Amino acid sequence: SPYGTPLAMLYVDAAEEMGYPNVDVDGESQVGFQIHRGPIRNGMRCSTGRGYIRPIRNRTNLHVAEGAFVTKINLDSTKTVTGVTFTRNGVTTTIKAKNEVILS
One GO MF term, please (predicted)? Predict the structure, then answer.
């Protein structure tokens, strides 16, 4: 796993030796052992802002709404996210997304 530290991988290896499966956390069954994924940089957990937002913060197509409370994730008929409705400072706003929506 690209997410595991050497110590974490020892736990997974030990679990496998005891007969527990090493599972795909996105698979059909999550019963077993696997390394939890998260924003990791240099072997340490990093914040969403540091791991995802900071590297792309100057993109013209990025909108960050701090202090916003998401009230609805808008979907189309194929259940693809098309936008987000949120409230900030008492004002409700709906925005459309062309590519991605990241909520944190």
Answer: oxidoreductase activity
